[in-house]
Amino acid sequence: MSDVTAVRLADVVKAYDVRGLVPEQLSPQVATTLGTAFAQVVVLPEGERGVVIGHDMRDSSPELARAFAAGVVAQGVDVTMVGLCSTDGLYHASGSLGLAGAMFTASHNPARYNGIKLCRSAARPVGQDSGLTEIRDLAQWLLDRGDHHPPMRAAVPGTITETDLLDDYAAYLRSLVDLRGGRPLTVVVDAGNGMAGLTVPAVLQRGDLPLTVVPLYFELDGTFPHHEANPLEPENLRDLQAAVLAHGADLGLAFDGDADRCVVVDERGEPVSPSAVTALVAEREIRKEVASGRPAAEVTVVHNLITSRAVGETVDALGARAVRTRVGHSFVKAQMAEHEAVFGGEHSAHYYFREFWYADTGMLAALHVLAALGEQDAPMSSLVERFDRYSASGEINSTVADVAAATERVRAWAQDRGAVADTLDGLTMSREDDPVWWFSLRPSNTEPLLRLNVEAADRTTMEQVRDDVLGLVRQEP
To answer: Do 139 and 36 form a contact (C-beta atoms < 8 A)?
Structure first.
């Protein structure tokens, strides 16, 4: 058992969620206290009707979910337990039931970790600027007092009911994208022993869909015995790539541990850039809106500032509006809600849909990709080739002693080369003259790190800009 009086929630409550080691940082007692704080800070003051709680396949998740529920019901708030689900399954439950939500998962983190993703009803986010800081502070106060029971226990506790919404989740997603008219496709799916092992059979392997699904690692296992459930790391895609080639598949899909992110691999076994997926889905969503009679100029797509320029160019070419945001799901969701955007995408393979309560769902993005591929005869690589017109570095992290000084060195270098500065999120420098390039240099919120992303019209230019900027970032003082 952990000493809960020694827990520092500032180390556990992150910008967008809760994440920590079990049981040292996240024990049942800590979960109960966080449930208490969630009820007092968000649920009761905002008039939420109750809380829906789900969890992933980690060994610690069921106990932590029950402990959190105990803190909530002690405040007189009713709880609906949906059991095993993906994070987007929890968002579906929050949206369809009209309840605040808590999802117990550490996504792609190793087995010793767990965490909590919180939302208001209709999957509206709870982040550091929208209630999570207050939840952390109240929970820390309760822990420091050594009182792990609510100080304002309700006279009549809430109730706990259990339900299974997997079929409803699958039916809802399939109602949004109809695959039945497409050509037959063979798709290899790597669930990484995560929650896609539950959701993919429900969504893609039932009914009369023209799909042959080749499963990899569908067994739910929170120890991740085959590889980490993080599809953004190239080594975690190797089994999927090999299986796509071995089966002559049309494409491959890789999900992370809580199945809210999806990475696509083409028929050659090559990863498809999440920016290309964002552009492809954006195009489909814009055209659907226009077909329904809405003027393209009234349709908005949101993307974060380190997705490819091809995303904004695709949206502009269709006459719609592209809104650029800071990196992070709370920023994307806020901009989507503000602009009533039809779709949003991030470089991290998070995809957001107005029809899904502005929340992210890798499964719905996968359905769009499958539909787009099945509606025509070209292979996956050809389908996305037109969106891969730039060369990108990917994200490169550097530990620096003086973040401000390093950033200023880079700014001066880029301005000398005709680039224009933008400070929406860290420093973005863009050069529009030939050779065209841009880069983003963003500081970490918690570490002395700078995160660099570079994109250019050709690989040689990208590598030159990347190397020059890294040299300045890593320059010894």
So the answer is: yes
Which residues, other chains included, contact 148 with Cβ-Cβ below 8 Å and sequence gap of 6+? 4, 29, 32, 33, 142
Element (DSSP H or E) covering residue 439: strand 437-443
**What does residue 453 show for φ and ψ, rounded to 5 degrees?**
-130, 130
* Separation CA 204–CA 259 (nearest Å): 14
Peptide bond between residue 184 and the one before it cis (omega within 30 degrees of 0): no
Burial class (CB within 10 angstroms; exposed 0-12, middle 13-18, buried 19+) of 476: exposed
Domain 167-177+185-269 carries which CATH code? 3.40.120.10
In this predicted structure, the answer to whether residue 361 has a pLDDT above a threshold of 50 is yes
Give the pLDDT mean for 275-297: 98
User: CATH 3.40.120.10 occupies which residues in the chain?
Assistant: 4-164, 167-177+185-269, 274-385
Sheet holding 51-55, edge to edge: 18-21, 113-119, 100-104, 51-55, 79-84, 160-162
What tokens appear for 367 in the block? 């359905």
DSSP assignment, residue 27?
Answer: -
Helical segments of 104-184, H only = 132-145, 166-176
Lowest mean pLDDT among 29-43, 56-70, 136-150, 174-188: 136-150
**Domain 391-473 belongs in CATH node 3.30.310.50:** yes
107 is catalytic: yes
Question: Topology of 274-385 in CATH?
Answer: Alpha-D-Glucose-1,6-Bisphosphate; Chain A, domain 3 (3.40.120)
Q: Which CATH class is domain 4-164?
A: alpha beta
CB atoms within 10 A of CB 397: 11
Mean pLDDT, range 114-132, rounded to an integer: 95
Identify any residues that bridge with 301 across adjacent strands, giving them in sequence order. Answer: 322, 343
Query: Which residue intervals of the chain bear CATH 3.30.310.50?
Result: 391-473
pLDDT digits (tens, 9 = 90+) for 249-270: 999 999 999 999 999 999 999 9
Q: How many CB atoms lie within 10 A of CB 328?
A: 20
- Asked if omega into 231 is within 30° of 0 (cis), the reply is no
For residue 155, count CB atoms less than 10 angstroms from its CB and return exposed for 0-12, middle for 13-18, buried for 19 or more: exposed
Report the pLDDT value the prediction gives residue 149, as an integer from 0 to 100.
56
Q: Which amino acid is at 344?
A: G
* CB contact at 8 A, 201 and 218: yes
Active-site annotation holder among 94, 107, 121, 130: 107
Phi and psi for 344 in degrees, rounded to 5?
-145, 150
